[in-house]
Design goal:
With 426 residues, the chain is an alpha+beta fold. It has 2 domains: 1-58, no CATH class; 59-388, Pseudouridine synthase. The protein contains 12 helices and 17 strands. Strands 5, 6, 7, 8, 9, 10, 11, 12, 13, 16 and 17 form an 11-stranded mixed β-sheet that branches. Strands 1-4-3-2 form a 4-stranded antiparallel β-sheet, with no helix packed on it. A two-stranded antiparallel ribbon has the order 14-15. A hairpin with a 4-residue loop joins strand 3 and strand 4 (47-54). Helix 9 (366-376) runs antiparallel to helix 10.
Length: 426
């Protein structure tokens, strides 16, 4: 019997212990009896307990959950080959100085277990980007790689690595100058929101924010403020430049949702969900800031600036209309990642002693496309879904040519369109 442990939420999120499955030692693999698996799960205050999950769980035919499950199996696999294969097949840009990848969700950048963690609690190290850098460098025929523009673990999109320490310092200084001197939003994020945000600035707007902690359990919360000149000179607040636009929206009552593109100059991903929550449009799958937008009966009431005394409620509550469109239940919401994808990064590059500006773009992940298609139900998302998953619902599944191409990412997968999907495609 595994004992209960108590870890901070930040540590648990870093180690990914929610995804660790542990089995009783006296149970054989060939047993067909109703034995159970033990899964570590989080309580509200970061306590880790064991939950018995029946092995005979009914299969789920939801395409969205299947894609998320396949991604989770890849990043949590003990063999790093699968993540390496994903990176090498998703190179967005490469030259003699740098390389950019399309990072999957759920992959941590570093592995820093606490000193109090026993070896028996976590027998296998978590696959992380730092551990993959030496092998990536060998495959790219360079001596060493440096992370110049990282991406948070639960976000996907453009991640930039440099091949020399000198160019790493140059690129970091360039990103810092874009944030401080030029104030140009060089990072472009695609976001799926619950509700439609109010009054997104089309032109760049400077935002100031500080950090707030709650009993060292939750991650630092971003709080927007209007500081004085003295506070800004002392460096007591952070700043970023932000602008955005609504690309697609669903105005259906009870299922209002939107696809938003946000451009920022700050590398932190906390600014975007905090800002959108204060625009009454929390990020789908966000478990940190959705509580700020208070709505009663579908009407926006107020915005909470501080964490409630009872703590942050969990998980995010979705309306019946959105749950019906996604074909999931409220219990599945806690397994949804925040739908934040860094789709493009603008770079001023040195080439032959001349400055040349270009953009590195990353296509949307498959689970993002499926969710966007089911939420918005517009012509653009329908066309993207049909092009990416043209083999869905076809007898025999994908053809041999499609299996070899990048359009098919579900090897050996067989499923049919749901009734709701068939109605939209008609």
């Amino acid at each position: 019997m595994h004992t209960m442990t108590s870890l901070s939420r930040k540590t648990c999120r870093l180690l990914g212990c929610c995804h660790l499955l542990k089995r009783e030692n006296n149970v054989t693999h060939n047993s067909h009896l109703s034995f159970t698996q033990r899964r570590l799960w989080h309580e509200r205050w970061g306590e880790v307990k064991e939950e018995q999950v029946s092995q005979k769980s009914p299969p789920n035919d939801n395409l969205l959950l299947q894609l998320l499950n396949l991604n989770k199996q890849m990043v949590n696999n003990k063999d790093p080959f699968y993540v390496m294969d994903h990176f090498m097949n998703n190179i967005l840009y490469e030259d003699e100085n740098m390389v950019a990848f399309n990072k999957p969700i759920g992959l941590p950048l570093t592995y820093n277990p606490p000193k109090s963690m026993k070896n028996s609690d976590l027998t296998e190290p978590v696959v992380n980007l730092d551990g993959l850098l030496p092998e990536l460098a060998k495959r790219l025929f360079c001596s060493k790689l440096y992370v110049s523009l990282p991406v948070d673990r639960m976000c996907s999109g453009v991640i930039i690595l440099t091949k020399s320490e000198k160019y790493n310092q140059y690129l970091r200084k360039r990103f810092f100058s874009l944030k401080v001197t030029d104030q140009l939003p060089y990072q472009h994020w695609d976001v799926l929101c619950v509700e439609i945000p109010d009054k997104l600035p089309k032109e760049k707007e400077i935002l100031y924010y500080s950090k707030e902690k709650y009993k060292d359990i939750y991650l630092p919360q971003t709080v927007f403020c209007k500081p004085s000149k003295n506070e800004r000179k002392k460096g007591q607040v952070y700043s970023t430049t932000l602008c955005g636009e609504v690309i697609g929206r669903n105005k259906e009552k009870g299922a209002r949702s939107s696809h938003v593109r946000i451009s920022v100059t700050s590398a932190t991903n906390h600014v975007i969900p905090a800002y959108l929550s204060e625009r009454y449009a929390p990020v789908l799958g966000d478990q940190e800031y959705f509580w700020r937008a208070v709505s009663v009966g579908g009407q926006n009431v107020t915005i909470l600036k501080q964490i409630p005394a009872a703590g942050i409620p969990r998980p995010q509550e979705l309306s019946k209309g959105i749950l019906q469109n996604l074909e999931i239940k409220q219990g599945h919401v806690q397994n949804l990642p925040p739908f934040l994808h860094r789709s493009a990064v603008d770079i001023v590059h040195l080439k032959k002693t001349k400055k040349e500006q270009f953009t590195i773009q990353a296509p949307l992940p498959d689970f993002f496309l499926v969710t966007k298609y089911r939420l918005l139900k517009d012509e653009q998302s329908k066309a993207e879904f049909s092009e990416k998953f043209s083999y869905v619902g076809r007898k025999g599944g994908p053809s041999k040519e499609e299996r070899k191409s990048d359009k098919v990412n579900l090897e050996g997968w067989q499923s049919n369109l749901t009734e709701q999907d068939e109605k939209i495609l008609e």
